[in-house]
Design brief:
The complex is a heterodimer of chains A (about 110) and B (about 110). Chain A is an all-beta fold. In chain A, about 0% of the residues lie in helices and about 55% in strands. Chain A has strands spanning about 5, 10-15, 20-25, 30-40, 40-50, 55, 65-70, 75-80, 85-95, 105, 110-114. In chain A, the strands form two sheets. In chain A, strands 2, 4, 5, 6, 9, 10 and 11 form a seven-stranded mixed beta sheet that branches. A four-stranded antiparallel beta sheet of chain A has the order 1-3-8-7, with no helix packed on it. Chain B is mostly beta strands. In chain B, the strands form two sheets. In chain B, strands 2, 4, 5, 9, 10 and 11 form a six-stranded mixed beta sheet that branches. Chain B has a five-stranded antiparallel beta sheet with strand order 1-3-8-7-6, with no helix packed on it. The interface between A and B is medium-sized, with 26 and 28 residues.
Chain lengths: ~110, ~110
């Protein structure tokens, strides 16, 4: 158990819908990262937050957005969902987002878009 | 960006030793991580190398050669529970919005036979 929690564990929805994925980092960690993992793309970095502010952006679609709240939990919002958005979404956290820090991953949310 | 290559699949028998290679091309190297991921579960941290040489941690060791853009993960005394995907991830120096992000390889699926 990494100490990172994610909810929900599974999510099934329809195309065109919007969903929100939630992540709580390990106690004391200030930085949160979101990743998407699909069978054909591997693990892709989406976005990073540090203490409430966006720090780095990866391959995140415009239909997706995220934020980190004052209590340091983070939410990833996915809208206008398409079949291709079906994937595992992982959240990871690290102490301060520094370059040499290890990222600890949560159990993931499995999203299925029908 | 980054280019990270690792074999797609490997097989080995219990008790044996296996070496999983990873080659990378990066515009600015700032560390290499190895993660283990069982199917449908979160990646878990195995090792980190930022300087050339071998890092040993029990049955697992990781080697890095920065001049060759090469790393390997060595697993000794293989056990059935070692059957998993092994992900090589490179952190770049980054600038601006790509500061310190991790780039993951597609993973090497290791199957350990009795």
């Amino acid at each position: 158990d990494s100490g990172v929690t994610q909810t929900p564990k599974h999510l099934i929805t329809a195309t065109g819908q919007r969903v929100t994925l939630r992540c709580s980092p390990r106690s004391g960690d200030l930085s949160v990262y979101w990743y998407q993992q699909s069978l054909d793309q591997g693990l892709q970095f989406l976005i990073q937050y540090y203490n409430g502010e966006e720090r780095a952006k990866g391959n995140i679609l415009e239909r997706f957005s995220a934020q980190q709240f004052p209590d340091l939990h983070s939410e990833l919002n996915l809208s206008s969902l398409e079949l291709g958005d079906s994937a595992l979404y992982f959240c990871a956290s690290s102490a301060s987002g520094g370059a040499q820090e290890t990222q600890y991953f949560g159990p993931g949310t499995r999203l299925l878009v029908l | 960006g980054q280019n990270i290559d690792q074999p797609t699949e490997m097989t080995a028998t219990e008790g044996a030793i296996v070496q999983i290679n990873c080659t990378y091309q990066t515009s600015g190297f700032n560390g290499l991580f190895w993660y283990q991921q069982h199917a449908g579960e979160a990646p878990t941290f195995l090792s980190y190398n930022v300087l050339d040489g071998l890092e040993e941690k029990g049955r697992f060791s990781s080697f890095l050669s920065r001049s060759k853009g090469y790393s390997y993960l060595l697993l000794k005394e293989l056990q059935m529970k070692d059957s998993a995907s092994y992900l090589c991830a490179v952190r770049d120096l980054g600038r601006g919005s790509t500061l310190g992000r991790l780039y993951f390889g597609r993973g090497t699926q290791l199957t350990v036979w009795p």
